[in-house]
Specification:
single chain, about 240 residues, mainly alpha
Length: about 240
């Protein structure tokens, strides 16, 4: 019964958060991605070599959602599924903090705080080392970026959770160490973010990258606020301790 309640609350919260994220992306993020893709397509056209034409044709031969309604639907589906996963984690941690550590039950207001913690752990802290990547902007090796991102999320999330749940004053020291460790090691970085681009295109991509960071940050914050508030409402309405 407890598991069923947790899943229902997470589905409700994830659906709301995923839809809110999709709306925010449609308004802020997608236009920036489209502009970067246009610059990238211009680069391919200018190169014009046989090898680049072969690679370009090969890329288009791979399946991908068509622009328009199909791409919108797949984006919304992806966002909702991702948000449901985040909501499951938030509900489970909120229940654990209440049942195992004696913290107050989540409510819509405290859920906002938990949502802010999720935003810090999953977006803000990793973005200090690895910026959200636009089309046409180079990145370090995918495996190294993924490893650093996962390590940063785990360390930041664990630090925030321990700072909230433990009662010892030493928890602040432990939380600070966990949060800082990934950044002390440093995130993997590419040699040249705009390799292969002219100075003019590189300047445009640089400006778009700044706008993209702000847009993705705001959309992610909106998603986490909605997930947190809905999770708090769900747990307040169906408290795990009463199951």
């Amino acid at each position: 019964m407890l598991f069923r309640r947790i899943v229902v609350i997470a589905l409700f919260s994830g659906l709301a958060g995923g839809l809110a994220l999709s709306l925010a992306q449609r308004w802020q993020v997608i236009p920036i991605i489209a502009a970067a893709e246009h610059l990238e397509s211009e680069k391919v056209e200018v190169e014009g070599s046989e090898a680049s034409e072969h690679d370009h044709d090969h890329d288009h031969a791979e399946w991908g959602p068509e622009d328009g309604l199909e791409r919108i639907l797949f984006t919304v589906l992806s966002n909702v599924l991702t948000a449901i996963g985040y909501a499951l984690l938030l509900v489970a941690l909120g229940a654990a903090a209440s049942i195992k550590f004696g913290r107050a039950q989540l409510n819509p207001m405290s859920g906002l705080v938990w949502g802010l913690g999720g935003f810090i752990a999953f977006f803000a802290a990793p973005s200090l080392g690895i910026l959200p990547q636009l089309p046409g902007v180079a990145g370090a090796a995918l495996e190294s970026r993924q490893f650093w991102w996962v390590a940063t999320v785990l360390c930041t999330g664990a630090g925030l959770f321990l700072a909230h749940t433990l009662k010892s004053h030493w928890r602040w020291v432990g939380a600070a160490v966990l949060i800082c460790v990934p950044h002390l090691f440093g995130a993997p970085q590419p040699d040249d973010l705009y390799a292969g681009h002219t100075a003019e295109v590189a300047a445009q991509l640089s400006a778009l990258s700044g706008a993209f960071l702000v847009a993705t940050g705001l959309s992610s914050l909106i998603m986490w606020i909605v997930i947190g508030a809905c999770t708090g409402f769900g747990i307040r309405r169906f408290p795990p301790t009463q199951i």
